[in-house]
TrEMBL record:
Catalytic activity annotation: an all-trans-polyprenyl diphosphate + 1,4-dihydroxy-2-naphthoate + H(+) = a 2-demethylmenaquinol + CO2 + diphosphate
Originating species: Segniliparus rotundus (strain ATCC BAA-972 / CDC 1076 / CIP 108378 / DSM 44985 / JCM 13578)
Keyword Nucleus included in the entry's annotation: no
Highest taxon of source: Bacteria
GO cellular component term, pick one: plasma membrane
Pfam families on file: UbiA
UniProt cross-references to InterPro entries, sorted A to Z: MenA, UbiA_prenyltransferase, UbiA_sf, UBIAD1
Annotated localization: Cell inner membrane; Membrane
GO molecular function, one term: 1,4-dihydroxy-2-naphthoate polyprenyltransferase activity
Name listed for the protein in its UniProt record: 1,4-dihydroxy-2-naphthoate octaprenyltransferase
Pathway(s) it belongs to: Quinol/quinone metabolism; menaquinone biosynthesis; menaquinol from 1,4-dihydroxy-2-naphthoate: step 1/2
Keywords from the UniProt entry: Cell inner membrane, Cell membrane, Membrane, Menaquinone biosynthesis, Transferase, Transmembrane, Transmembrane helix
Entry's Gene Ontology BP terms: menaquinone biosynthetic process; vitamin K biosynthetic process
Function description: Conversion of 1,4-dihydroxy-2-naphthoate (DHNA) to demethylmenaquinone (DMK).
Length: 296
C-alpha cells in the first residue's frame, strides 16, 4: 500500500504551477478589466477546478501508463502503478475523485456566471482523460503540448476571467497565451527527459516525433514565448514589464537544455520551468492589480 508521501509524489507537485498561474492571471485580468471585478470566492473555485484537473490528469496518466507498462522503467517522479506501490484501481479512484472535485467547483462557477463554462470544462475533462486513457490516446501521438496549451492556458485563464467579469479582455487573452506556452514548455521538458523510455515503450510524444535536437528547440521557443507576450501586454499595462525578471529563473535550465542535458539532469529544469511560470504569473498579476488601483 502506498504511503501518504508516495501519493503526494504521484500527484506530481512540480506541475501545480500549471494550475496556480492561470487562475492568478485570469483573476488579475478580471481586476484590471473592470466589469464585475475580482471576486475572491470565484477565484478560489477556479483554483479548485484547475488543481482538480492537474492532479486528476496526473493520477489518470499514472493509471493508464501503468497498466500499459509504459512506466515500468522511468527516470522522473514516483509512478504509483508502475512501481507497484498502489493498485491500479486505487489510482483510478484518486483520479476520478480529483476530477469530481473540479466538476463540482466548475458547476458552481457556471451556475453563477456562464453555462458556457460547462462546455469548456467538458472539453478539458475529455482532453485530460484521453491524454493517455482510452484505446487511442492522443498523448502517444505527440499532441500533449497542444492539449496543455488549450487547457492550462486558454481555458484556465479565460475561464477564470469569464467567471468573474462575464467577458474576456485583451489582457486576459495575452495572459492566456503566455500561460499556455509555459504549460506546454513544462510538458516539453518533461517529455525531453523521458525521450529514451518513451521511444522504447512506443509512446510517440512530440519529443520522440521531432527528435532530440528539435525537441530542445521547441522547449526553448515555448519558454521564450511568454516574455515576448509580455512586450505586447506592456503596450496596455506598461508595468507588466516587471515580469521579464522571471526570465532569470530560466537561465540555467535553458542552458542545460541547449547544451544537451539528458535524463535525470533535466529534473531540475522541469522544476525551474514551473517556478518561472509561477513567478511570471505573480509579477504580471501584481502589475495588473496595482495598475487597476492606480498605484502604478
Amino acid at each position: 500500500m502506498a504511503t501518504l508521501r508516495q501519493w503526494a509524489q504521484g500527484a506530481r507537485p512540480r506541475t501545480f504551477p500549471n494550475a496556480l498561474a492561470p487562475v492568478l492571471l485570469g483573476s488579475a485580468a478580471a481586476a484590471a478589466d473592470g466589469g464585475g471585478g475580482f471576486l475572491w470566492w470565484k477565484a478560489l473555485a477556479a483554483l479548485i477546478v484547475a488543481l482538480g484537473f492537474v492532479i486528476g490528469v496526473n493520477y489518470a496518466n499514472d493509471y493508464s501508463d501503468g497498466i500499459r507498462g509504459t512506466d515500468d522503467e522511468r527516470i522522473g517522479p514516483m509512478r504509483l502503478v508502475g512501481s507497484k506501490a498502489a493498485a491500479p484501481g486505487a489510482v483510478l479512484r484518486a483520479a476520478v475523485a480529483s476530477f469530481a472535485a473540479a466538476v463540482v467547483a466548475g458547476l458552481v462557477l457556471a451556475a453563477t456566471s456562464s453555462w458556457w463554462l460547462v462546455v469548456l470544462g467538458a472539453g478539458c475533462l475529455a482532453l485530460a482523460w484521453f491524454y493517455t486513457g482510452g484505446t487511442n490516446p492522443y498523448g502517444y501521438k505527440g499532441y500533449g503540448e497542444v492539449a496543455v496549451f488549450l487547457c492550462f492556458g486558454l481555458a484556465a485563464v479565460l475561464g477564470s476571467e469569464l467567471s468573474q467579469t462575464g467577458r474576456i479582455s485583451a489582457s486576459g487573452a495575452l495572459c492566456a497565451v503566455g500561460a499556455g506556452s509555459f504549460s506546454a514548455a513544462v510538458l516539453a521538458v518533461n517529455n525531453l527527459r523521458d525521450i529514451d523510455g518513451d521511444r522504447a515503450s512506443g509512446k510517440r510524444t512530440l519529443a520522440v516525433r521531432l527528435g532530440e535536437p528539435r525537441a530542445r528547440l521547441l522547449y526553448l521557443a515555448l519558454a521564450a514565448a511568454p516574455f515576448l507576450i509580455t512586450l505586447g501586454l506592456a503596450v496596455i499595462h506598461p508595468w507588466t514589464l516587471l515580469s521579464l525578471l522571471a526570465a532569470l529563473i530560466l537561465v540555467k535550465p535553458a542552458s542545460e537544455v541547449r547544451h544537451g542535458a539528458r535524463g535525470q539532469a533535466l529534473i531540475g529544469a522541469l522544476g525551474a520551468t514551473g517556478a518561472a511560470m509561477l513567478a511570471w504569473a505573480a509579477l504580471t498579476a501584481a502589475a495588473l492589480c496595482l495598475f487597476e488601483r492606480g498605484l502604478l
